[in-house]
UniProtKB/TrEMBL annotation:
Family listed: Belongs to the dus family.
Domain (DUS-like FMN-binding): residue spans on this chain: 9-261
Cofactor(s) listed: FMN
Name of the protein this chain belongs to: tRNA-dihydrouridine synthase
GO CC annotations on file: cytoplasm
EC code(s) of this entry: 1.3.1.-
Keyword Membrane found: no
Function: Catalyzes the synthesis of dihydrouridine, a modified base found in the D-loop of most tRNAs.
Record key words, sorted: Flavoprotein, FMN, Nucleotide-binding, Oxidoreductase, tRNA processing
CDD domains: DUS_like_FMN
Keyword Transport: no
Entry annotation: catalytic residues: C110 (proton donor)
Amino acid sequence: MDYNNKLVLAPMVRVGTLPLRLLAAEYGADITYGEEIIDHKLVKCDRIVNDYLGTIDVVEKGTQSVVFRTCPEEHNRVVFQMGTSDAVRALKAAQLVCNDVAAVDINMGCPRSFSISGGMGAALLSKPETIHDILTTLKRNLNTPVTCKIRLLKTSHDTVELARQIEKTGVSALAVHGRKVPDRPRDPAKWNEIADVVAALSVPVIANGDVFDYEDIQRIKNATGASSIMVARGALWNASVFSPKGKLPWEEVKKEYVRKSILWDNEVKSTKHTLKEMIMHHSCLEFPEGKAVIKSETLVDLA
Ligand code: FMN
């Protein structure tokens, strides 16, 4: 996969399922990440061809819950993001999905206590040997491109050092979220520190943080020197952020999102969560629409 000059939908838990990925791509995203899925969960799953929907489903044994759903239309642009702390388990998990996706990405930025306590996400940032093990094991054994996504370390020097070590493992690209582990989402992303990584590496760096409008894409490109840009909240709130024609009214995007959720039989929890996030940003959950979404139990209720 070519990682230059691309607009990228960021990985987002509960949000980045098939309907949002397809919607973002329709509006102009070139690469679309799925939500992070933990390797422990994946190794308990089966890969099932769903002839009815025309999808490939990764389904948890026993519960039959769909952990990941993809379709041939997105095969060349969907990135499977995994949470892991162990090379052998990561490989076993990745082998289940690697032929159905364009790349496998390892999350090295998640600051939630669940990830950190399991040695995953941002916990990996202070374990360069484990990073090396995981990435080289995946690289050696998969034919699918391998990438990872990091946060900034305490100093720019430390981030660049780690990024150089990651580059040596043979990853196809590195996404850098321009915040440090203790930073909150409202803290401004440090585009200047992403620029230091871009300047030091030959491998494509995907810059991430604080892109909310199409114009911000050029601003972050100028500030970081990165040619590929990743968008999370901007796309959650209005997936048409990727459109060079400018954003569509969010109500229109929301309707299309619900339509796609029904077409692809998206998990209710995911559609509900995503709609709540959209409504909280643009309107208010206390209004009748918000209350109705909160009460909904099925996709039909949500529609
Ligand atoms: N980052 C990951 O690497 N994996 C995830 O699964 C993930 N889930 C997220 C879920 C939500 C709802 C949000 C808002 C962010 C999530 N992130 C995750 C972080 C984003 O990918 C991104 O790095 C961060 O939000 C900064 O980008 P932004 O300023 O465009 O929002």
